Amino acid sequence: MKKIFIFMIALVLIFSGCTNTTQNNEANQEENEASYTEEAVTEEVSEAVELSDDDSVNLTLHDWVLGTEYGIKEAYANSESSTVMITISEENYNKLQDFDFEDIENGIKDILNAYSVEEGYEIIFSDSTSVLEKPSETQTPDETQEDEQSEDSLQPEDYDGETVNLIFIHHSVGENWLNAGLNQMLNENNIHVADTYYGWREMGDRTDTSDWPDWFNDSVMPTVYNELGNMTGYNDIQPAPSENTIIMFKSCYPNSDVGNSIDDEKEIYLSLLSYFSQHPDKMFVLITPPPMQRISSAKKTRELANWLVADDGWRKDYDGENLFVFDFYNVLTDEDNHHMLLDGEEAHIINSSSNTLRYDSSGDDHPSDEGSLKAAEEFVPLLMYWYGEFIGD
Fold first, then answer.
1. Would you list the DSSP string of 187-220?
2. Residue 194's closest CA among 241, 240, 229?
């Protein structure tokens, strides 16, 4: 009986040891598998980190292409040739407008900057078989225009007809405005047009409302006064042998969404008055930011535009005679809203309660040619009237 009892104990110990051994083996196997998996992940991460700059940029470009609506098939960067090749059908390419090219270029520029890629990359459009090129923007003015002044030119009565130099600080909406008739109308009134755009020195990309204090100071503006070149359109007339006298400046349409308060915008605009007063020989013309189709607090935008234009608003305590405001915003909100010269006097007219963009470009927030032309026809006579006031005529 004693032997049987000892035998049973031995069996229990043996099976117990087997069970522990099995559990230990399973634990070791799980640990090894976990270790292997961790090593595999580490290798994958390591491989990802070791991706070339081109690979990283191209992965981001691929995601960017998926988010565009231009019909782009592929975008590929090559650091050796310093190019970004965009593949797109010729049909879709021909549909692109100037502001589309601008958006594409800015999108790619942002991606390259995110990877600290040096500037200087050339963007090339291709249909997979050949390079696509924009139609030449060079236009040859009618030779008769060089010798004749348009009979419809809107000159102040005492304006002596000498050329005046103007510079316009703007982005894409300003480009469209100039090309939709503004540049030609100004030339017909002996106004030579220079302008700054994306890529102009270190400041051209910055035209938000918050950027204006960085423009209007004695470090930047002397260069602006002496800039007689144009980045948009062309001139039928030669510039006067002097600095720019008229300085126009405008923020793009995103700045029309001011949020629930306009206190910050008012503070920025008020901070500029000191500089304007120190330069009475220059004529400063603010163009209010154009509206968008959707504005979160459109009534606040309207309030700011009215404050900028009103005599008892922004310029209430300004003693100078060299600061003027054109309500581009109001003109584009409705066909019955105007800022114009009427019966020889400045008229700011709000007949419609619309506070958003009336003249869109088929759903795009850039004003249509119709809206740009309307604004040009109202602005130029008003500008010439203001210029007469500025020079004391």
1. HHTTEEEEEE-TTSTTTTT--SGGGHHHHSSTTT
2. 229
Look up residue 205 and give its two tokens.
Answer: 């990309």
Helix (H) or strand (E) holding 275: helix 263-277
Rounded CA separation 26/17 (Å): 14
Q: Each residue of 175-213: pLDDT tens digit? A: 999 999 999 999 999 999 999 999 999 999 999 999 999
Collect all residues with Cβ–Cβ distance below 8 Å to 347 and sequence separation of at least 6.
338, 339, 340, 341
| Structure-block tokens of residue 310 | 């009103």
* 3-class DSSP assignment, residue 358: coil
Among residues 365, 283, 354, 277, the alpha carbon closest in space to that of 325 is found at 283
Cα separation, 237 vs 147, whole angstroms = 10
Phi, psi at 359, each rounded to 5°: -110, 75
DSSP line for 210-271: GGHHHHSSTTTHHHHHH----SSS--SSPPPSS---EEEEE--GGGG--TT--HHHHHHHHH
Would residue 148 be called left, alpha or beta, if left means φ above 0 and alpha means ψ between -120 and 50 degrees?
beta
Lookup: tokens for 228: 């007689």
* pLDDT at residue 49 in the model: 36
The secondary structure of residue 158, as a DSSP letter, is T
Q: Which are the contacts of 382, defined by CB distance < 8 A and separation ≥ 6?
A: 326, 339, 340, 341, 346
Beta strand pairing call for 246-250 and 283-287? parallel
The angle that helices 263-277 and 298-309 make with each other, rounded to 10 degrees, is 20
Q: What is the DSSP letter of 139?
A: -
pLDDT in tens, 309-362: 999 999 999 999 999 999 999 999 999 999 999 999 999 999 999 999 999 999
d(CA 65, CA 224): 37
CB distance 185 to 380 below 8 Å = yes
| CA 227 – CA 165 distance, rounded (Å) | 10
